[in-house]
Amino acid sequence: MPNGAGEPISGGSGPTVGVLALQGAFEVHQQRLHRLGVRAPLIRTPRELDAVDALVLPGGESTTMSRLLGTSGLFDVLAARLADGMPVFGTCAGMILCATEVLDARPDQRGFELIDITVRRNGYGRQLDSFEADLDVQGLATPFHAVFIRAPLVERLGTGVEVLACHDGVPVLVRAGSCTVAAFHPELTDDVRLHELFVEHLSSTD
Amino acid sequence: MTESRSTGTFPVKRGLAEMMKGGVIMDVVTPGQAKVAEDAGAVAVMALERVPADIRRDGGVARMSDPEMIEGIKAAVSIPVMAKVRIGHFVEAQILQALGVDFIDESEVLTPADEAHHIDKFAFDVPFVCGATNLGEALRRISEGAAMIRSKGEAGTGNVVEAVRHLRSIIGDIKKITQADQAELFEWAKRLQAPLPLVQEIAETGKLQVPLFCAGGLATPADAALAMQLGAESVFVGSGIFKSEDPGPRAKAIVEATTHFNDPDILAKVSRGLGAPMTGIEMDDVNQRYAERGW
Fold first, then answer.
1. B-chain residues within 8 Å CB-CB of A167?
2. How far apart are CA B224 and CA B147, in angstroms?
3. CB-defined contacts A:B, below 8 A
4. Does A6 score more than 60 pLDDT?
5. CATH number at residue A23
6. Alpha carbons A105 and A96: distance in angstroms, whole number
7. Phi, psi (5° rounding) for residue A121?
């Protein structure tokens, strides 16, 4: 496994996982994927989307990203790719962008409605309520240390949504089909196991 | 077991700064302006009573804003709300933390309260951003617990030249340190008056330990993209938006320019027809250099 973060990987036959880079914590996601030896180009325009097999929607401000998805012309192109089954891993704001229902959102905020959950923006409170905690994650032998920043709160799960981890009884990592979403930020710790699970899941569903 | 949680830790503070990368933080003085900023795609607003250009014009002592005004802005938007305290004024910071603001700016734009000590930022659960004109200043602020650094520039001037100077100084020295050998790192720490471990960390990672944003004098989409191309990870725009002729479109354009900072075609498109920017001041005509406050 390549050691240093931020090393661009060329060649290889594995999947290319784009990282939406309109705003937010995209760079650390890219570093985690690079550490796994995965090509991870930053995506800011529709043209850049052509080359990717899967996508990470990072944390950041969902209102900002939603607006930039519109102005960049990415929204419709991306929505079509996602509806077509392109695998996606959304963290925090990325979870909000994937949910079918978002509470406390701005009225003009748009999302991709990929996973049947209801989330409340900033449902855990303001920054002073942001926290770190260890989570038991399905498929991982030891707990995963998770950082929650003004996190979205999952308030409803639709049928067929698989819960991979909970905190205080609330689902915080869930999956349905090719869409995996986390209320927390796996990119903020050195632990690459969740990125690894996502990439492995890609190969298994190829 | 796995059900406990810890709040106010350094990773949690730094995490919010990380979420603001590639974004624009806008100064606002009313709930109405805060809405305009949020509509435009700001990642956060800085709530204050007067933008730096007005503080500059009015003179006198500039202090923390009225809590009522900050609460009005908090109620108006769903994005993070920042507010400023005077350098060293830890009681203003205690008040802002009690109000539940999301980030505190220990800012040279306000009149300093302490001529020797910055705030012990580890003592707070709320994250802090601090200004810096050079790498030594940035590392001293990080050693005091800052979760974000912004290059100071010269606030309220609409003139980007000082922001460029400070950003180039910080990033230039970071680049040099990555080329230094171990013996030279001792000398760097001495010259920068900064803790050696932080200097050694830069030698290894080539980056500050916390996000580096740019502030002070940005007024156009091109200014924002310039800061980003020079290596800033986000921008603060103060007087530049609400002292311009038509704040809404300018705010939106600066947001787009910050995301697409490396794409001249998009920059050309968003820079069109924005009306007059703020007038701005030439540096020789600046009566008070805010960047000289803090040490």
1. 2-3, 5
2. 22
3. 137
4. no
5. 3.40.50.880
6. 9
7. -60, 140
* Residue A179 lies inside a defined structural domain of this protein: yes
Alpha helix stretches (DSSP H) within A25-126: 26-35, 46-49, 62-71, 74-83, 93-98
Within-domain flag for A9: no
Give residue-wise pLDDT tens across range A173-205. 999 999 999 999 999 999 999 999 999 988 775
Residue A3 maps to a domain: no
Q: Which two tokens stand for residue B158?
A: 């609409």
Q: Does A106 touch chain B (CB under 8 A)?
A: yes
State which residue of chain B sits closest to A149, comparing Cα positions: B16
**Is ipTM > 0.90 here?**
yes
DSSP structure class, residue A16: B
Tell me the average pLDDT across B47-51.
91
- When CB atoms are compared, the residue of A21, A127, A134 closest to B16 is A127
Distance, in Å, from the CA atom of B175 to the CA atom of A7, rounded to the nearest integer, reads: 18
Q: In this model, does residue A11 exceed pLDDT 90?
A: no
CA A146, CA A167: separation in Å to the nearest integer? 10
Asked if the Cβ–Cβ distance from B7 to A128 is below 8 Å, we say yes
Q: Tell me, what amino acid is at B295?
A: W
For chain A, counts of helices (H) and of strands (E): 6, 12
Q: What is the DSSP letter of A149?
A: S
Is residue B175 part of the annotated active site? The answer reads no
**A150 CB within 8 Å of a chain B CB:** yes
The per-residue b/e assignment along B69-90, b for 16 or more CB within 10 angstroms, e otherwise, is bbbebbebbbbbbbbbbbbbbb
Domain span including residue A116: 17-204
* A42-65 mean pLDDT: 96
Substitution target in B1, B4, B5, B252 with the highest count of A β-carbons within 10 Å is B5
Q: How many domains does chain A have?
A: 1
Q: What is the largest distance, in Å, between two alpha-carbon atoms of chain A?
A: 45
- Cβ–Cβ of A132/B2 closer than 8 Å? no
Which of B2, B125, B258, B266 best probes binding to A when mutated, by most A CB atoms within 10 angstroms? B2
User: Contact at 8 Å (CB) between A94 and A181?
Assistant: yes
Res. B105: pLDDT tops 60 = yes
Joined tokens for residue B90: 């830890």
Residue A140 covered by a domain: yes
